[in-house]
Amino acid sequence: MLVLKDIIFWAMYFVSFYMSVFIILTLFERKIRKNPLHLGSLPYVSVLVPAYNEGESIARTLDSLLALSYPKDKLEIVVINDGSTDSTKKIVEDRYTKQGVVLINQKNKGKAAAMNNGIKRAKGELVACLDADSFVQKDTMKKMVGFFADSSVAAVTPILKVSNPQTLLQKAQWLEYVLYTFLKMILASIQCLNVTPGPFSIYRKQHVINVGGFDEASIVEDQEIACRLQMHHFKIMQSIDGNVLTIAPRTFKELYVQRRRWYKGTVINLYKYRKMLFNRKYGDFGIFQMPSLLVGIIMPFVILPLFLSYTITPIVNYIRHVQLAGFDMSLDFDFNIQNFTTNYLISLDYAKLFIIVIVFLVSVWLMLLAHKSTREKLAFSSVVPLVFFFIIYYILLSFIWAGAMLEFVLGKNKKW
Amino acid sequence: MQTRITSSKNKYFAAGVATLIVFVLGILLGIVIDQKKYEYVTGLAMEQEVEFNSLQVQYLYLDNIGGPNSCKVIEQTLENNLRMFQPILERLIDYEENKQYNNEYELLKRKYLLANIRYDLLAQRSKAECGTDLVRVLYFYNSDCKICGDQGFLLSNLKDSLEDKLLVFPIDMDFTKEPILSVLSTQYEVTEFPTLVIEDTKYVGFQDKAALISKICPLYKEKTGICA
Q: What is the per-residue burial (b if ≥16 Cβ within 10 Å, else e) of A88-98?
């Protein structure tokens, strides 16, 4: 058991470290394209806003779109009301149609169907998608469209940031998004993006139509379309300064609901596009990114048992011992600190410790670089969220992975 | 359609080499530190052996010379040495938990086990000849016994309270290389684990805290700690 645990430990850290080194080498090898190519003139963009019962946030979303610093004659805003039963339709009709916002009503068919419906009616050569719980900054679109000067670019994804993080969980997600955006900048340089997030990814309409539009059966249409575009050898770029704010889950329950959909979608996509896995025909996407997704699926199931065996088991044992001792443990604190320290130092496994410290330092370094790249500052107040992020957050995500996969295996699909 | 840019094989290779270097460094560091740890623990065992030899010579000397104060001196010496012995015991156990078995380690453990038994013999003599107020517990365990961890914990817990008046001698019955173990297990007919021998009375099976107290406390002349 001890040997198996050791093998798993070493394998996990070896793979994680290998992937980190590969990303770092890519960072230094290829220059991240900071400024998109210059377009002769700004393209016509249709922003599609699929909305299902978004009465609470649709007004703020549309206000942020109307405030975009983009020529009005080259911008179309289309709300696709996906059979909402709340005030969504009324808000758009009453306040926004007179400002030029187009409203399309459809029966509730899901986001992908709404997007396809919007694409059919869209006038723009580019279509942007904006979830109704996200908000764009004024200059975001201008900063993103330049990438389309390269005709093989099919999609550009923005920098996603968590809007006004309040809870510790939201702050951890804020850090996660910063790190993730930075990694995406690097991965984009080797065409390894596997998702075009719902909040304000911009697509070249014709390319999306050419590959068959959004998959209406998919629960993660933004991951699915990205994989399909990759399969057709189109480029997906990561903007480095076009910001979009999104509302992150406040509680663990909300996070669980969001992530289990993403995670299940990742598994389905990986299976659907399994022929790209380790396939050199798809370049680094096949050789590095798809295997990374596979590792990402396996990793939580390695982290969780290790975490439980290293932390929870001793705690449970301690509690049992306290009970056995009749809650008379006070004398245990009367120990000799020097002996305790010596015993502790002797009992450490220094080879493991060395690797853990190196992996941790690399993670911290990447986090610092990520902040620099996304022009965010690390304040003193970030210390607690950082500690939470590095020590607890991924354990929480592992629990979500395990729960999501368990539901998946047991066939509890209805809630997705 | 575009032509894909694929990273060179060199980068995949370089990442592999860099990763290997870091891991090899880590493993080498582990080996070097393990060696240092072994040297340290060996030093402790030697220290313990010298202490024991010193104690034994003092004991023999006092035994031969006799005299009105000999018991007082014996008890004092035993007490001083037990204080030294306990931390070494803890360190060895910690070392044991994290160490893969090898020949050097087995020798070390054998040394420790013998020292443990010699200490017990010495304690018996001290008790018989000087009436020292202490209780000896031989604790037989093996790795198949799941509840033994709890039994060991309870004995430590009692020792925390009774301090040097309770002498616990843990005996790992998995360690078949030492002949004295079969002598002990035959003498006390140990077949199940945990088995406790409290002052020559054998108790088979797990003993909870109340049971331990009821068996140990009456054996003291002066009641202290949890027995008070």
A: bbebbeeebee
Residue with tokens 């500690």: A387
Question: How far is it, in rounded angstroms, from Cα B116 to Cα B121?
Answer: 9
CA dihedral A190, A193, A199, A200 (to 10 degrees): 40
How much is the ipTM here? Answer: 0.81
Answer whether B11 sits within 8 Å of A22, measured CB to CB.
yes
The whole-angstrom separation of Cα A283 and Cα A289 is 9
Mapped onto helix, strand or coil, the DSSP state of residue B138 is: strand
Residue B154: list chain A partners with CB under 8 A.
324-325
Looking at per-residue pLDDT, the higher value among B181 and A344 belongs to B181
Domains and CATH numbers, chain B: 15-132 (1.20.58), 133-228 (3.40.30.10)
Interface test with chain A among B94, B147, B164, by most A beta carbons within 10 Å? B94
Give the separation between CA B65 and CA B54, rounded to whole angstroms.
16
Check residues A63 and B117 and name the one with the higher pLDDT.
A63
What are the residue ranges spanned by the domains of chain A?
A: 1-36+134-416
For residue A130, give the amino acid letter. L
Tell me if B25 and A354 make a contact (CB, 8 A cut-off).
yes
| Closest chain B C-alpha to A346 CA, distance in angstroms | 6
Alpha helices in A85-157 (DSSP H): 88-91, 111-121, 140-145
pLDDT in tens, chain B (228 residues): 555 666 678 899 999 999 999 999 988 998 898 888 778 877 776 776 787 677 667 767 766 766 666 677 667 766 766 666 665 555 555 555 544 445 666 776 777 777 677 777 778 877 887 888 889 898 888 888 888 888 888 888 888 888 778 888 888 888 777 788 888 888 999 989 899 999 989 999 999 999 999 999 999 998 888 888
Alpha helix (H) ranges present in A274-349? 283-284, 290-307, 313-324, 337-347
Q: Would you say A374 and A182 are in contact if contact means Cβ atoms under 8 Å apart?
A: yes
Q: Which residues in chain B have Cβ-Cβ distances shorter than 8 Å to A334?
A: 160
